Amino acid sequence: MLSSEVLTVERQGHVGVLWLDRPERGNAMGPALWEDLPRAMAELSSDTGVRSVVVAARGPHFSVGLDLKAMGPVLAGGGPSGERPASMAARARAGRAEIHRLQAAVTAVADCPKPVVAAVHGYCIGGGVDLISACDIRIAAADAVFSVREAKVAIVADLGSLQRLPRIIGAGHVAELAFTGKDIDAARALEIGLVNHVLPDAAAALEAALALAEEIASNSPMAVQGTKAVLAAGDGRTVAEGLEYVATWNAGMLVSDDLMEAMAAFMEKRPPNFTGG
Q: Was domain 7-217 assigned CATH 3.50.50.60?
C-alpha cells in the first residue's frame, strides 16, 4: 500500500481513487509528488480488483502546478539532490535526466492499462495540465481554471502537454494556450474539448467522475483495457494498420469467459457478472 505525504490511494468497489493530497499548498507538485506518483500508478495498474481510476484533489485547487520553490534547484540543473554540478555541460546532463524522470512520472498515468478519469476543480495550472492530459477523460467543476503557464515563467512545457494536448483539443488551441500562457475557464475548456463535462461545483464533478468510472468498471475489464490498448496502438497508424492490430487482438479474446458471460446474460435477460477472465 502506498505511503505518501502528498498522495492518497483509496478503493471504492472496482474504482481506484488517487487523491492529490497536499491541500495546504494547492497541491503544488514538489519532490514527493514526482517520487510517489509512479508508485501510486503502479499499485493501481497491478491491482486486478481495480478496473478504472479517478484522479482527484483535496482542497480548493486541483493543482497550482510545479512547486517552483522546492523544484527551483532541480530546474537549474541540480538534479534530484539539488546539488549543482560545476560545469555547464554537467548541469545540462543533470537537467535533462531530471526532466526525463519527471516525464516518466506523468507517463505512468498515461500508461495505466485501466481508464483514468480526472475530476478537476479550482486551479489546474502548468504541471496540473500535464497530469490531466495524461488521463483518458476529464470532468471539471464550473470554477476550474486551466493554464499551460510555462511560457510566463520562461520555460517550455516539457512534461507532456505539448505532446498530448494536440490529440485532445487540436493544434491551434494548443498553440494559443501554450504561446500565451493564458487562463481559460471551464466553459471554454468544454468548448474546445479539453473536458467532457462541466458540473456546478467540485463535489458534483467528483460525483460525476466516480459515476463514470463505476459505469466503465461495470463492463468487462478485459474488453475495456483491450479497447484502451487498441486506441493507443492506433495513434499514428493508418486505418488499415489499426484494423489489422484490432483483428489480431480480438482473435485472442474471442474465447474469454467474459464473452461467454455476456452472451449468457443476454439470453437470460440479466446483468452480466464480468470477472476479467
A: no
